[in-house]
Structure formats: C-alpha cells, structure tokens
UniProtKB/TrEMBL annotation:
Main location group: cytoplasm
Gene that this sequence comes from: rsmI
Lineage top rank: taxon: Bacteria
Localization terms from the record: Cytoplasm
Protein name according to UniProt: Ribosomal RNA small subunit methyltransferase I
Membrane spanning stretches: none
One annotated Gene Ontology cellular component of this protein: cytoplasm
Length: 244
C-alpha cells in the first residue's frame, strides 16, 4: 500500500538487515536516502534495483513536496546511511508533513547504534536519555554536559573517534567520577565496549587513538540528598544493602 516507510538498515554488519526491510525496499516505487552511493551499495548487496532520490531535512520545500507527490502514486521508503532514520539523521520533517496530510507512515524497525551501545555498556538501562552529538567546541560541550548533569538516567551520545578524547576531557571536568562507557565499531569486526572513569578512558584512548564510529555513554547522576528524609532513606537502603 502507499505512504511512507521508515526503514532501518545495518550499522556495520550487513546481516542485520531484516526480512521485512528487504521486502519493503524491493517493493516500493522509490527510496529516499541521504547518499545515493551509500544506499546504492547496500541495494547492490541485496540484489535490489531501485529509483534513489536524495533527501535531507534541509532540502528545500520543493524536494519534500516532490516526495509527497510520489507517495500519492505509490509507496516510498526513507533510509539513512546507517541505522534507524530520524535518530540523529534526516526524516522528522517528512514524517511530520505526512502525518499532517493524512499519509500513512509505517516504521520498519532495525539496528540503531544508541540501542546497541546501551545493551553492551553495563550501565543502568531502565532509564536512558539519547542526546545526539555533543558540540565540537569545548565551551559548548561543557555547557551541554552541565545542563544534563542532574538527569537521573544514563546519557547516550554519538561521537566521532577524532573527538573522543576531547569529549572525555569535558566529562572529566564537568562530571568527574561518573562511570563512562565507550562502544566502538558496534556490530563490526573490531567491536569493543570499554568502561571506566573518564580519567581511565582518557589514558587508554590517548595511548591508543581510536578509529571508527563511537557511542559514548555516561552513568546516571548520583541520587541527590536534599532533605533530611532523603538522607535517612538513603542510609536505610545502604543498611539493607550491606546486610544482604
Ligand atoms: N541513525 C543512526 C543510528 O540509528 O544509529 C545514527 C546516525 S549518526 C549520523 C552516525 C553516528 O552514529 C556515528 O557518528 C556514531 O556515533 C554512531 N554509529 C553509527 N554506527 C555505529 C557503529 N557501528 N558503532 C558505533 N557507533 C555507531
């Protein structure tokens, strides 16, 4: 049926494409993508020939209207270079417009680096906050970390390898002593997930400059003691914990 299909694609290991994704990519009348070469390679691997249209959220209004017109004729898929579209990737404006116009939107789920990172990190996963990319300038990065300092959830960021040590240094300054985890090259041959204090990780990655793609995670803010009651209940919890 017609409408927009949001299709997740692998973040490294091509085996992670889903059966449903293959079926949809084969069946749509066009695929909107970030980079036609990247998506072309995936389709070639899958043995699929398709019409590719470049799309990003900064595309002018005409490009978006063009895609919406195509959807009236037949189904269109949106993919990004890797992982789940809309997650630090284009698509949200397109989905928004589809919803406003009553065009059906269907999501075909699959890999997303943030989720893979969370599942490997050993950090609390009951509550996590995905916060996209940290700013590249130190001052702005410190400001964002300070803003998130009290969030009672594991923080998840996307990062690039050349900036990892700088980001860890900002964490060490703004959130010293927090547990940090670095997921690198997830689902790929040299996948690793390393955790420690910001200091330990700065030491490791300064001596071993990282390559490839990175998910950076920070453990939740420690519980705040703001009232006498808080302090008492925390002490009670500690006692129960130490008796167990
Ligand atoms: N939409 C994608 C997703 O769902 O994961 C993310 C797109 S974002 C533009 C690209 C960033 O995702 C990279 O800079 C890196 O932080 C992260 N990433 C993508 N693939 C990864 C991988 N295999 N291992 C670790 N991080 C990855």
């Amino acid at each position: 049926s017609s409408g927009l299909y949001i299709v997740a694609t692998p973040i490294g290991n091509l085996g992670d494409i889903t059966l449903r994704a293959i079926e949809i990519l084969r069946g749509v009348s066009a695929i909107a993508c970030e980079d036609t070469r990247v998506t072309g390679k995936l389709l070639q691997h899958l043995g699929i020939k398709q019409r590719l249209i470049r799309y990003d959220d900064h595309a002018d209004e005409r490009a978006r209207v063009g895609l919406l017109a195509l959807m009236a004729e037949g189904p269109v898929a949106l993919v990004s270079d890797a992982g789940t579209p809309l997650v630090s990737d284009p698509g949200y404006r397109l989905v928004r417009e589809c919803r406003e116009r009553g065009i059906a939107v269907t999501s075909i789920p699959g890999p997303s680096a943030a989720i893979v990172g969370i599942t490997l990190s050993g950090l609390p996963s009951d509550r996590f906050m995905f916060a996209g990319f940290l700013p590249s300038k130190a001052k702005a990065r410190g400001d964002v970390l300070a803003e998130l300092a009290d969030v009672p959830a594991t923080l998840v960021f996307y990062e690039t390898s050349p900036r990892l040590v700088d980001a860890l240094q900002s964490i060490d300054e703004v959130l010293p002593g927090r547990e940090v985890a670095v997921g690198r090259e997830l689902t790929k041959m040299f996948e690793e997930c390393r955790s420690g204090s910001p200091q330990e990780l700065i030491e490791h990655y300064s001596a071993n400059p990282p390559r490839g793609e990175i998910v950076l995670m920070i453990g939740p803010a420690p519980a705040k003691i703001s009232t006498m009651e808080d302090a008492e209940s925390m002490l009670r919890a500690e006692l129960v914990h130490s008796k167990a």
